[in-house]
Amino acid sequence: MRFRHPVIAGLMLAFLVGPAMAQITVLDNAQDRPQGGEAAARVAPAGEIAATPGAQPPPCGTQPMTIARMTWPSAALLADIHARILNAEFGCEARVVPGDLAATASSMGSTGQPAVAPEMWVTRIADVWNGAIETQMVRSVAPSFAEATMEGWFIPSYMEGAFGGPPSAAALQALLSTQTSEMPVRFISCPADWACSVINRNLIAAYGLGDLVQLVEPANRFEMDALIAEAVSRRENFILYYWQPNAVLAQLEFRALDMGAYDEEAMKCLARLSCAAPKPSAFPAETVVIALAEWVFAEAPTVASYFQRATLPIAEMNVLLGQLNEPGATVEGVAERFVAARRDLWGAWVGAVP
């Protein structure tokens, strides 16, 4: 299933396939309200954890600390990782529950459950998300990933040295013009029925690469990955389009090309089948956030603070996805390995000095 947008193909969430370039205003009230403690008194409905009068309040509040586990791998991993850390470090009884982008955002905005959605692609559900934000029962607290640009052009790591500096799309024309073999080099794009294929064709023209690359548009995602793997195994010089988070980029060791700044007007033209004067532009940033129910700030402020620090470098997620592709691997097993081995990373989330 791929979420689509008029400018570019959306994400195939089961594999994080394809980008979405939705330039939709998304409300974010993370800075509009205090960070905890200012909640109206309320009667706990059935199912909530009752606090004994005079006793220490539960460390994770009186409501269920549920974490939405979306159907795509990176979000499932984050849900399991956070549940394990909350239980071990804060004494919570956190548990993962099934999630879905629109349904989870709507439920958080109306009931405050689930309490956490660790990977919410809010531009894909802008109307639902904006409605949830307006209820003041949910907010975004931090980016899910340290990087916001999720797609672009890449080269295999063994080509990096040929650039004589940081590899960039702008340097490709000069570099490829001096090559005497493997001419033209292959550019492995996305399938022709994905909107990113149109953008890549126009970007090739914008960078003056029309005579220097051989454009390859595979029939589907699986053929795309097979072509990439074969090219790497032959140590072929080639360029590819891809997206993150994704195991392929970590497993086969690719380097992102610097594509410069994002130019909204240029991208509007690049996304058209007929772009008369294509100009270079980076792909736009995505808004991917950790969403937190407002009650967590009032009832479990230390947990809220934890999630405000819980941004993961996207390269780390690519490694986790690579581990998930290993024979017999499970989300639970990869999450357990991460928590056991990477306290140097997540220790900062709980406020510990690495």
Description of the structure:
It is a single chain. With 354 residues, the chain is α/β, with parallel strands linked by helices. The protein folds into two domains: 66-147 and 286-346, D-Maltodextrin-Binding Protein, domain 2; 151-270, Glycine betaine-binding periplasmic protein, domain 2 (D-Maltodextrin-Binding Protein, domain 2, 3-Layer(aba) Sandwich). It is built from 13 helices and ten strands. The model is unreliable at 1-26 and 28-52 (pLDDT under 50).
Name of the CATH class of the largest domain: Alpha Beta
Major beta sheet, specifics?
5 strands, mixed
Strand order of the largest sheet: 7-6-8-5-9
- C-alpha geometry: elongated
Low-confidence runs of at least 5 consecutive residues: 1-26, 28-52
Tell me what portion of residues adopts beta-strand conformation.
5-15%
CATH topology of the largest domain: D-Maltodextrin-Binding Protein, domain 2
Number of structural units classed as domains: 2
Structural class: alpha/beta
Q: State the order of secondary-structure elements, H for helix, E for strand.
A: EHEHEHEEHEHEHEHEHEHHHHH
Query: What's the pLDDT, averaged over the residues?
Result: 86
Number of helices: 13
The rounded Rg comes to 22 Å
Would you identify the CATH architecture of the largest domain? 3-Layer(aba) Sandwich
Which bin fits the share of residues in helices? 25-40%
Strand element count: 10
